[in-house]
Amino acid sequence: MSLPLIDLSHISTPQDTDTTNLYSYTSSPSMVQSASDWLHIYPKGIYKLLMYIKKKYNDMLIYITKNGN
């Protein structure tokens, strides 16, 4: 069985088509601001993600590496 080829070159985003976004952005004052104004540091988030993966995938080995400077 072969899978169909999906051409992603014609897909656009709401920003591309000048439509309004259907989401809103909120930030908690407890979150630390990063270099990007839309990105915040939330250490508890990665902890929760790792605990979810541990439970769902039977404590599999995970490598966390640094990306960037």
Helix and strand topology:
Blueprint (H helix, E strand, L loop, with lengths): L31 E2 L6 E2 L1 H14 L13
Antiparallel strand pairs: 1-2
GO molecular function, one term: hydrolase activity, hydrolyzing O-glycosyl compounds
GO biological process, one term: carbohydrate metabolic process
Pfam family, one: Glyco_hydro_1
Q: Overall mean pLDDT score? A: 72
Oligomerization status of the protein chains: single chain
Please work out how many helical segments DSSP would assign.
1
What class do helices, strands and sheet pairing give?
mainly alpha
Most strands sheet: 2 strands, antiparallel
Amount of beta strand: 5-15%
Radius of gyration: 18 Å
Number of strands: 2
- Low-confidence segments: none
N-to-C SSE string, H for helix and E for strand:
EEH
Q: What strand line-up does the widest sheet have?
A: 1-2
Instruction: Give the fraction of residues assigned to helices.
Output: 10-25%
What general form does the structure show?
extended
Report the span from N to C terminus.
44 Å
GO molecular function: hydrolase activity, hydrolyzing O-glycosyl compounds
Pfam families: Glyco_hydro_1
Family: Belongs to the glycosyl hydrolase 1 family.
